Amino acid sequence: MDQGHSTNAVDDKQGEYILINDAEEPQLGLFDKPLPCFGCGIGWFSLLLGFVCPLIWYFATILYFGRYYHKDPRERSGLAACTIAATLCTIAAVIALLVILL
pLDDT per position in the chain (102 positions), as tens? Predict the structure, then answer.
């Protein structure tokens, strides 16, 4: 066998990207595009921005319960984190109001 020639067709295309199609998994490659908001996703970006304006957590909570993550499952964890943050913020606000009023 000659060492200068490759026997595999993939080796001939070094440095080129090829589209992977799988008959068993048609959604393979569907989520290859980067997430919005600087690549971290709407959920995580909302969590970070919510420390400045907590109302953003409630908006992300609406997105979470509206099943926005069905469009892109990678958003689910960030939106869930915002839902937890909104819940904790609400509990803290209720406790603070009870302490002030009583």
Answer: 555 555 555 555 566 766 556 556 665 566 667 777 777 888 899 999 999 999 999 999 999 999 887 888 888 899 999 999 999 999 999 999 999 998
Look up residue 38 and give its amino acid: F
Which has the closest alpha carbon to 50: 65, 68, 34, 63?
A: 63
CA torsion sign for 42, 43, 44, 47 is: positive
Q: Any idea where the domains of the chain sit in the sequence?
A: 31-101
Dist. CA 93–CA 89, nearest whole Å:
6
